[in-house]
Design a protein that fits this description.
Residues 1-39 have low confidence and may be disordered. The protein has 15 helices and 10 strands. It is an alpha/beta fold. It folds into 2 domains: 5-280, Rossmann fold, CATH 3.40.50; 302-453, no CATH class. Helix content is 36%, strand content 8%. Helix 2 crosses helix 8 and helix 9 (302-310) crosses helix 15. The strands form 3 sheets. The chain has a 6-stranded parallel sheet, sandwiched between helices. It has a two-stranded antiparallel ribbon with strand order 1-2. It has a two-stranded antiparallel ribbon with strand order 9-10. The two termini are 36 Å apart. Strand 1 (5-6) and strand 2 (15-16) form a beta hairpin.
Length: 464
């Protein structure tokens, strides 16, 4: 989906429009000639609306990884994007970069500098002249917009445009500068608006770094409250507050996020993948058509998630969502597996033969753990605990799955190998799982249950 944005000179929050007519005042003081041909069919503006990757299909991501080599110049603030991408890759290997089959990102420790600085352009030319495989170039700011001028921003935009003219087969990504607490009326926002307006008017690709820092994932707006790069605003810290209200959400996964909070980096990492999908033209934006409003037909586990809902194995969260890409803890996983196998009366009447010391009888998950313990499905850790709140990795999940459905196993000196081999033989391992130590997602859990219960063997399966 190609989006067109305008920011009015009043500095109102971003407004989407559906017309391709650009009022002349948008160009403001910017006067350009010989604008380069756009590398895409329209402006691609990536902002706070583009942090949800639930609609990205695995085929789209794989295509991106195959088709693009990036050159990215950044210092500390710009590292927030790749820090978020690294955390996402750790959560889901589909989103790999700088690995054997991942997206190539060649990073250099440099940035766009300050007013009138164009030294980065020569670095870019050297890179492109020496590496013909590079087909996307991105540069970030590190404080250089806050004190900039209209003339300095014009220099940046003109220099980027000249690079596009000189290298017509390369896509150049424009970027706004990070927030500094000066609000809607501050110089930073004025300069960022010049960049936004130019990108929208001239079919450029823009990663709106500042806009992502201006909103929390629920769409609450903080630039008018003096938000800064650490997500502080007049009244608190929106990232800390959102994560406090959403414990365990993968958006809040801990990451070393330069100058900022983990949530900010994780949002930017996801937005970057959506930008790549927009560039490639494979980003789907259709409505969800299944059992849950956040599970789209493009999701690799779409059929499986609809199946486990229809079979009464899962119900989703209180807000009606499923959160397919969230990781899952041992208590939640055990509950779902037990409910897929046993009747409610059996579960409700369970009494521990041997109770785990960290599973209180009053806990919501106690009866499911009880059933799993009594049936020999789980036996806990060496210290005798169950660790119900710990995230479950694939090795642990494979044991619980195989034991729940009572599949025969072989023997091995490595405790998890017999269970993994059963799932491999049954073609039940989603290809998004790359390691036995990888924490699994709710979508992957549904996929394995679906394949096993319906004896589906014609889908691609991982070998671990």
């Amino acid at each position: 989906m190609i989006k067109l944005y305008l920011r009015f000179i009043y500095n109102l929050p971003m407004m989407k429009i559906k017309t391709m007519f650009i009022p002349l005042f948008v160009l403001g003081v910017l006067c350009f000639s010989n604008i380069s041909a756009a590398a895409v069919s329209g402006p691609v503006i990536i902002d706070h609306n583009d942090t949800d990757i639930s609609q990205l299909s695995s085929s789209c991501v794989e295509t991106i990884k195959s088709n693009y080599n990036l050159f990215y110049g950044h210092t500390s603030h710009g590292s927030q994007i790749v820090s978020g991408m690294k955390t996402l890759m750790d959560q889901n290997s589909l989103y790999s970069y700088n690995t054997a089959n991942g997206l190539v990102i060649n990073e250099t420790s440099d940035d766009l500098g300050g007013t009138g600085d164009t030294s980065w352009a020569e670095v870019t030319r050297t890179e492109l002249d020496s590496d013909p495989d590079t087909n996307i170039v991105t540069w970030s700011w590190c404080g250089g917009v806050s004190g900039n001028t209209a003339e300095g921003i014009n220099t940046y935009l003109n220099t980027m445009n000249q690079l596009e003219l000189d290298y017509p087969n390369v896509i150049f990504v424009y970027m706004t500068g990070h927030l500094d607490g000066s609000g809607e009326d501050g110089n930073l926002n004025q300069m960022n608006n010049l960049i936004r307006n130019y990108a929208a008017a001239n079919n450029k690709v823009l990663f709106d770094f500042a806009d992502i820092e201006s909103f929390d994932p629920d769409g609450s707006y903080f630039l008018n409250l003096g938000a800064d790069d650490n997500n502080d605003y007049d009244g608190g810290n929106w990232a800390a507050e959102w994560c406090s209200a959403h414990p365990g959400d993968p958006l809040c996964a801990s990451v070393s996020c330069a100058h900022s909070q983990s949530l900010n980096c994780n949002l930017k990492g996801r937005a970057f993948w959506n930008m790549m999908a927009e560039i490639e033209g494979c980003r789907e934006t259709g409505e969800a058509t299944g059992a849950f409003p956040d599970v789209y037909s493009s999701h690799p586990n779409f059929d499986a998630i609809n199946y486990v809902e229809a079979e009464g194995i899962v119900e989703g969260y209180e807000d009606g969502t499923y959160k397919p890409d969230n990781t899952i803890n041992r208590a939640e996983f055990t509950k779902i597996l037990i409910e897929s196998k046993y009747e409610d009366t059996q579960i409700d009447n369970c009494a521990f033969n041997e109770q785990f010391p960290d599973v209180a009888l009053t806990a919501w998950y106690a009866k499911y753990v009880c059933m799993a313990r009594n049936e020999g499905i789980v036996d806990g850790y060496a210290d005798g605990t169950f660790k119900p709140g710990s995230l479950i990795n694939f090795a642990e999940a494979s044991k619980i799955i195989v034991n729940t459905y009572e599949y025969p196993t072989g023997t091995s000196e490595i405790w998890y190998r017999p269970f993994v081999e059963v799932l491999q033989d049954k073609k039940a391992i989603p290809t998004s799982i790359a390691s036995v130590n990888e924490d699994i997602t709710r979508g992957e859990m549904a996929e394995m249950i679906y394949r096993l219960m319906e004896n589906i063997t014609n889908k691609a399966s991982a070998n671990l």
